[in-house]
Amino acid sequence: MAGIYRSTRYVLQNAFGSRSLPGAVRFYSQKPDPAPLINVDVDSKTGVATVTMNSPPVNTLNTPFLNEMGGVIKELEKNKTRGLILTSSSNSVFSAGLDIMEMYKAPRDQMAVFWTTLQNTWLSLYRTGIPTVAAINGHAPAGGCLLALSCEYRVMVGPKFTIGLNETQLGIVAPPWFLICMREAVGPRQTELALTSGKMFTATEALNIGLVDQLVSNKEEALAEAHKFIARFAKIPPLARKLTKEFTRQEGIKYMEEKMLDDLETFVDVASSPSAQKGMEMYLEALKKKST
Ligand SMILES: CCCC/C=C\CC(=O)SCCNC(=O)CCNC(=O)[C@H](O)C(C)(C)COP(=O)(O)OP(=O)(O)OC[C@H]1O[C@@H](n2cnc3c(N)ncnc32)[C@H](O)[C@@H]1OP(=O)(O)O
Q: Which residues sit with their C-beta closer than 6 Å to ligand 1?
């Protein structure tokens, strides 16, 4: 392990005084952008929050965005929100996944802060007692797919958008907790087939393997179905629901609680390796070429 990483780990551990690093690492992030990257709209009748990712052009997951998302989840939990619907303000992209610029040619300590923030925000979303639904109204590759998989129910707008964990196509490896989320939705066979090839699924294919639960034809329908899913819990005692969700998701929660620092170390080593850097460079070039 290189010295710089060791010192990052030391600083993070000292800052929080324990092996687990709860909450987002706010003091490491840059000055926050005054414009919100995420909009929250709570329905006054139902108490259900629509959380709209609004970070143009493609809702990439970077440190400020993830910090804000972590803060939103904490706030909704504090206010005893009845449901959380995750969607996007874009007409074509749910989220383009991790911001490759947080990993490409980034110093190891910056990568470490980024990954720690991702780990914490993911855990908050994955384990929250609030019923969660992803209203997937656009493409959801890699980290975008992870966000959707972390919710309890997925409604996807079809047929033209795609979803999947495509990391191997970039020459990087989806970590075990991404894989656990995928396996919980589609089972081990489909997970291996999907992840080894980095397959992006059409909405119909995603429905067929259970990667999403419902197909609809536009965002309004997606939001309506999401509300219906949350309404199913109106008469279920919240504590029993929350604990049952925790038990069901124990593997992912346990992985993150126990392996957070090992996972961080692996990420920084893998992402900074010459082959991963080369893969990202080529991928970024291809994206740029496509957009010009
Ligand atoms: C050990 C590591 C583990 C890592 C685990 C997870 C990895 C990830 O999540 S990696 C990210 C994987 N994401 C993708 O593969 C998606 C890439 N993006 C796309 O396929 C398309 O952008 C998308 C289909 C989402 C949208 O297409 P368009 O609407 O046509 O937009 P553009 O492609 O023109 O993109 C606009 C603009 O955004 C830049 N961009 C897109 N995605 C990313 C990204 N993930 N990170 C950083 N930047 C991204 C793209 O280059 C364009 O930039 P400009 O050319 O400067 O406008």
A: 57-58, 60, 92-93, 96-101, 139, 141-143, 166-167, 170, 172-175, 267, 270-271, 287-288, 290-291
